Amino acid sequence: MRRSVIKGALMAGASGVLSAGRPPSAPRTGRRPSAGTRLSMRWLGVAGWELSFAGRSILFDPYLSRMPYARADGSLDPALPLRLDREAVERVAAEHLTGAPELVLVSHGHFDHLADVPQLLDRPQWRKHRVRTLCDETSGHLLAAMGVGPERMADVVTVRGGEYLQFDGFTVEVFRSLHSQQSQYGYFAPGRLLTRPARPRVLGDLVEGETLMYQVSVDNGPSVLLSGASNFAAREMAGIRPDVAVVGMTSHSAVHHYLERLLSTLGDPPVLLPSHHDDMTTPLNAKGAHALADPAAAESLSKAAAERGSLYTDVLTPRPLEAFDITV
To answer: What is the DSSP letter of 73?
Structure first.
């Protein structure tokens, strides 16, 4: 039997989470709550997340600069300059993050996933803490090119997919994955790096490399699948059964039955969280920032779950920077 998942304090305003699927008060027949390690999750906007438990934390794709990225027609413009917002990054880190993370997980090398990792790794308040970074080879070269120092680079662990890593109190499984495809089947800023490049200056200098997914499983706690893109390689994840799936919801019109195949591959996780579904530029502290998420993302997830007859799946809509708890 699958482990049951309970979302603590789900009412709007209490936890920062709104249910877009099954109402929080609805019973889940056959899913009995049990004591376990509490996991707190916090959406950082775009594809970024913080997972914290027992006073420890993990960051995934923490992009906070929210810099301009598009042409007048809304399409991605790789020639736009990198405009890192160091003040915004520091504000979020100081006011909202749990503390120095034990791990930073990077799904791929694009600007909206990697660009702020160097500043976070270099925070003076975190320098006495060991912070490992898991990423592909390309992202590792980009981090070095963006000024991450030798001490931090020594803790950058290059992964390829297939690794199953044991840490103190949790595990991380790495899956080879695929990047979102544009409507005409192409990719934004593709490419791989075998050596350290010149310092990146424009968005397109931060190339994709290999796209990865990660499953974090807390001892005596929930397992969370983290995705930074709206595509996946089904055969790479056959048989995994995460309690929580963070689902990339950028454009996926070119991907055959994306949501239906993903839910089937994962065995209909009890909790689905849309991600990468905001405008990517409005500051997180702006008035009305709680409404940045596109409601259509949660609605699409809910529809896909309902069409599969997923009786025990809840689709939740996170609010930026507001934490909520998940317990098994």
So the answer is: T
Q: How far is the C-alpha of 263 from the C-alpha of 247, rounded, in Å?
A: 10
Q: Give pLDDT tens digits for 215-252.
A: 999 999 999 999 999 999 999 999 999 999 999 999 88
Nearest to 133 by CA among 115, 112, 118, 111: 118
The Cα 226–Cα 292 span in angstroms is 20
| Other Cβ atoms within 10 Å of 173 Cβ, number | 19
Say how far apart CA 56 and CA 58 lie, in whole Å: 7
**Region of residue 150 (phi > 0: left; psi between -120 and 50: alpha; otherwise: beta):** alpha
Tokens encoding 63? 């992009």
Tell me how far apart the alpha carbons of residues 164 and 125 are, in angstroms, rounded to a whole number. 30
pTM: 0.90
Is residue 188 assigned to a domain? yes
**Residue 282 falls inside a structural domain:** yes
Q: Are strands 314-318 and 223-226 parallel, antiparallel or unpaired?
A: unpaired
- CA 283: distance to chain centroid? 18
User: Which amino acid is residue 294, in one-letter code?
Assistant: D
Amino acid 283 reads P
CA angle 281, 63, 253 (to 5 degrees): 70
- The encoded tokens of residue 193 equal 């790096």
d(Cα 188, Cα 323) in Å, to the nearest integer? 31
208 is written with which tokens? 């994709």
**Phi, psi (5° rounding) for residue 202?**
-125, 165
How far CA 303 is from CA of 166, 185, 243, 314, in Å, comes to: 36, 25, 19, 11
Number of domains forming the structure of the chain? 1
Tens of pLDDT, residues 73-124: 888 899 999 999 999 999 999 999 999 999 999 999 999 999 999 999 999 9
What count of other Cβ atoms lies within 10 Å of the Cβ of residue 316?
A: 26
Is residue 18 assigned to a domain?
yes
Residue 1, domain member (yes or no): no
Tokens representing residue 118 in the block? 């160097």
